[in-house]
């Protein structure tokens, strides 16, 4: 078998897919294979392609004219846009084989060696032209010190690839999602079997998992949080935005909610507890309690530097709320807001207190979603302040509004 014909799927993940005209239609995310009788290598049925946010489709290998780590080219631009769903007996190659613990025996009478799958290569089968899984890259643990050696084997030299196994490792999956956006990781997790989804979630760092959870449907969030264990779940909730953490906790039974809040650090749990007091579907129920707040004696240069911090979402970084100390909600007296475009037009040394917009009345925590939406549309803003007795208690952003205007299962529908 010529090694030049091998295509390694972990390396192929993320590769752009082009139609015959050279227009990109998506990216490779995985491959689908079906086992064959005996020890014959599984036949590769097609590729799982991501063609936009939240949508993954199946592209049969018969539609593929060329494939390598630089580009995948299709024979036609016509695609079946039906959501990809694996069928019984099929293998999601990267999702199910990567990190699988296997046994290798290459010589008659030699002792079996164990290791983990790090990549799977496919190639065209001789004569027929179909694609099949051909080579397995395995990280072997050898010697008393457990040193790792990376070796390649033919499919029939490795056992444990398709049989049910216990918990797999996650190093390969973590490498795949390292450079992906949180929303794309969430989409990938929805395609994985439940067991692998939970294993990947458990392996992610707290901050990364918090970002991914915010992109998942609520029932998937609850499933993952329940599988993490109470202490780890509390750590992840601390890393989530307070409004997202409050929305997730609101879906839990009261006793579980209270237990997790008690396990969180008091300074992290406090804003979440405050948000849980408001009625769902009101300005208070959908707001974030941590908008960007500065005092009026801050310079414009300092304000712009704060807006540039990567942790700020586009909606949150569109404006600054100006208040008297203290600057944590509930603040001192609320003075007004400053849009970032106004900051760009003023001398950097000026103080933001001199350019505060006081014309927009803040929302009340009890205002319903219709009131919030109308006011946001009227003033063409992406965030509005929420005030109680002259103090800023939070802000409603446009993404908060969209999350609550859309049907509760909108993430699931987008994935369909």
3D structure, described in words:
With 416 residues, this protein is an alpha+beta fold. Among the domains are: 10-84, PRC-barrel domain (SH3 type barrels); 181-277, MgtE N-terminal domain-like (MgtE N-terminal fold), CATH 1.25.60.10; 293-403, Roll (CBS-domain), CATH 3.10.580. The chain contains 17 helices and 18 strands. The strands form four sheets. Strands 2, 3, 4, 5, 6, 7 and 8 form a seven-stranded mixed sheet that branches. Strand 17 and strand 18 form a beta hairpin. Helix 8 (230-239) packs across helix 10. The two termini are 39 Å apart. Residues 287-354, 356-413 form the CBS domain. This is CBS domain-containing protein/sporulation protein YlmC with PRC-barrel domain. It holds the Pfam family MgtE_N. Keywords: CBS domain.
In CATH, what is the homologous superfamily of the domain at 293-403? CBS-domain
- Structural class based on helices, strands and sheet pairing: alpha+beta
Number of strands: 18
Rg value = 26 Å
User: How far is the N terminus from the C terminus?
Assistant: 39 Å
Q: Which architecture name of the domain at 293-403 does CATH use?
A: Roll
Taking all residues together, what is the mean pLDDT? 87
CATH class of the domain at 293-403: Alpha Beta
Content of β-strand: 15-25%
Topology:
Elements: E1 7-8, H1 9-12, E2 16-18, E3 24-34, E4 43-50, E5 56-60, E6 64-67, E7 72-74, E8 91-92, H2 93-97, E9 101-104, E10 113-124, E11 131-142, E12 147-154, E13 158-159, H3 171-177, H4 182-191, H5 194-203, H6 206-213, H7 218-228, H8 230-239, H9 242-250, H10 254-263, H11 266-276, H12 283-286, E14 293-294, H13 300-307, E15 319-323, E16 334-339, H14 340-345, H15 369-378, E17 383-388, E18 391-397, H16 398-405, H17 410-415
InterPro entries: CBS_dom, CBS_dom_sf, Mg_transptr_MgtE_intracell_dom, MgtE_N_sf, MgtE_transporter, PRC_barrel-like_sf, SH3_actinomycetes
Keywords: CBS domain
Protein name: CBS domain-containing protein/sporulation protein YlmC with PRC-barrel domain
